[in-house]
Amino acid sequence: MIKISDLYNVLSAVVPLYVAMILAYSSVKWWKIFTPDQCSGINRFVALFAVPLLSFHYISTNNPFTMNFRFLAADSVAKMMVLMVLFIWVKFSRNGSIDWMITLFSLGTLPNTLVMGIPLLKAMYGDFSGDLMVQIVVFQCIIWYTLLLFLFEYRGARNLIANTMPDGTAPSIVSFKVDSDVVSLDGRQPLHTQAQIRGDGKIHVTIRKSTSSVI
């Protein structure tokens, strides 16, 4: 039986977060308080300082020797099942795409645990649930965010090959070398793609920055 006090605890934890988000959205969408440049600056501040510091605050309080590994294993199995279903969908369905695979995997398995999940579950189930959420955040930072970055780079490499190589040459590519000064293949920095056909008749691709010298 849900009591009034339980409902109050949940609302007192969630309402301030939603009020802040609604005010921020309204300030840009209707009230025009912030310009697009100011919004971009705020977003960069949140991404570079606020969220990393908040993550560090919670992660620093976690004791790895007391982590509930059965709980983490159950969470990992659920994420792997979702990833496997999406992989099968991309592999065997005409409508499947790596872009939607990344999007659906992020939405389905990597929710906003840090900002929304911890206050909400603490209000619903007590402090021990907050500790479990912190453990999930730690595991996500170590494993699942790294996997997500790999998927983004894989998508970037596929798009780069599709945009720079003639049609039908992709199956002939046997090596794909990226110079150390290339930070990412997301397309934000100009890149130079060099293809070389060696004695075996296969294509070897090297990715460099456009400004770097080609030897």
UniProtKB/TrEMBL annotation:
<feature type="transmembrane region" description="Helical">
    <location>
        <begin position="6"/>
        <end position="28"/>
    </location>
</feature>
<keyword id="KW-0472">Membrane</keyword>
<feature type="transmembrane region" description="Helical">
    <location>
        <begin position="132"/>
        <end position="152"/>
    </location>
</feature>
<dbReference type="InterPro" id="IPR004776">
    <property type="entry name" value="Mem_transp_PIN-like"/>
</dbReference>
<comment type="similarity">
    <text>Belongs to the auxin efflux carrier (TC 2.A.69.1) family.</text>
</comment>
<keyword id="KW-0927">Auxin signaling pathway</keyword>
<dbReference type="GO" id="GO:0005886">
    <property type="term" value="C:plasma membrane"/>
</dbReference>
<dbReference type="Pfam" id="PF03547">
    <property type="entry name" value="Mem_trans"/>
</dbReference>
<protein>
    <submittedName>
        <fullName>PIN-like protein</fullName>
    </submittedName>
</protein>
<dbReference type="GO" id="GO:0010329">
    <property type="term" value="F:auxin efflux transmembrane transporter activity"/>
</dbReference>
<feature type="transmembrane region" description="Helical">
    <location>
        <begin position="102"/>
        <end position="120"/>
    </location>
</feature>
<dbReference type="GO" id="GO:0005783">
    <property type="term" value="C:endoplasmic reticulum"/>
</dbReference>
<dbReference type="GO" id="GO:0009926">
    <property type="term" value="P:auxin polar transport"/>
</dbReference>
<feature type="transmembrane region" description="Helical">
    <location>
        <begin position="40"/>
        <end position="59"/>
    </location>
</feature>
<keyword id="KW-1133">Transmembrane helix</keyword>
<keyword id="KW-0813">Transport</keyword>
<dbReference type="GO" id="GO:0009734">
    <property type="term" value="P:auxin-activated signaling pathway"/>
</dbReference>
<dbReference type="InterPro" id="IPR051107">
    <property type="entry name" value="Auxin_Efflux_Carrier"/>
</dbReference>
<feature type="transmembrane region" description="Helical">
    <location>
        <begin position="71"/>
        <end position="90"/>
    </location>
</feature>
<keyword id="KW-0812">Transmembrane</keyword>
